[in-house]
Design a protein that fits this description.
Blueprint: E1 4-8, E2 12-17, H1 33-41, E3 47-48, E4 57-63, H2 66-77, E5 82-90, E6 97-106, E7 111-115, E8 123-137, E9 140-149, H3 156-163, E10 186-194, E11 201-205, H4 210-213
Parallel strand pairs: 4-10
Antiparallel strand pairs: 1-2, 2-4, 3-4, 5-9, 5-10, 6-7, 6-8, 8-9, 10-11
């Protein structure tokens, strides 16, 4: 449950979060990225810019100071932080697509559902997806797909994939459990953003964790 540091300067840090580690503590006693960074930096302030679900692994950028946090948050709102994910889907995605759904989150259940456009509280979710390669697990067709977030909604990739009839492998909340992998087969593999102070473009890439590589 220790993040891997990819890049760090006096303004921000890029790290790779392991699956199972919270981005931000939800319950007393549960370790999170924020808790780990407080210990690592030796001070309380941690500028969390975006989150990954607990059981999702991959790249995150976190600000070290409030000015950097404000600028990175603005970059996220302006679509200047590009987040690319890879996931194993149950089923065959034949070609690249853009998925658009309207989502509502039940915060009490920590669950998101697709609803008709215009429903009270619904927010539009836009996701670009393309197939990378195919595999089979018994009689089950699988697709390793790459996702580009156009919006940042809670559980977005997991919910929209399920709504498209291609749930993530190993996702019991929006699909079903798998004996092959014990968590949603989703990894944040690439992160691009302007440096919060210089504005220089930065790009970082990760590799798929072993649990996802062994699938196919």
């Amino acid at each position: 449950m220790i993040p891997k540091i990819i890049f760090e300067d006096q303004h921000c840090i890029v790290l790779e979060k392991p699956a199972g580690l919270l981005s931000q503590g939800a319950k007393r006693g549960d370790t999170s990225v924020v808790d780990w960074l407080r210990d690592y930096w030796g001070r309380p302030y941690v500028g969390l810019v975006h989150r990954l679900d607990r059981n999702v692994s991959g790249l995150m950028v976190v600000a070290k100071r409030s000015k950097a946090a404000a600028r990175l948050t603005k970059a996220l709102q302006d679509g200047l932080i590009r987040r690319t994910y890879q996931a194993w889907l149950k089923g065959r995605l034949p070609q690249a697509a853009e998925w658009r759904h309207w989502l509502v989150k039940d915060t009490g259940k920590n669950e998101v559902r697709v609803v008709p456009a215009g429903q009270h509280g619904a927010r539009e979710a836009i996701l670009k997806v393309r197939p990378l390669r195919y595999a089979k697990m018994g009689n089950q067709a699988l697709t390793l797909a790459e996702f580009q977030l156009e919006t940042g909604r809670s559980h977005q990739i997991r919910v929209q994939s399920a709504a498209a009839g291609l749930p993530l492998l190993g996702d019991p909340k929006y699909g079903q459990e798998s004996r092959v992998i014990e968590r949603p087969a989703l990894h944040a593999i690439r992160l691009e953003f302007p440096h919060p102070m210089s504005g220089d473009p930065l790009m970082f890439e990760s590799t798929l964790p072993a649990a996802m590589v062994q699938i196919g």
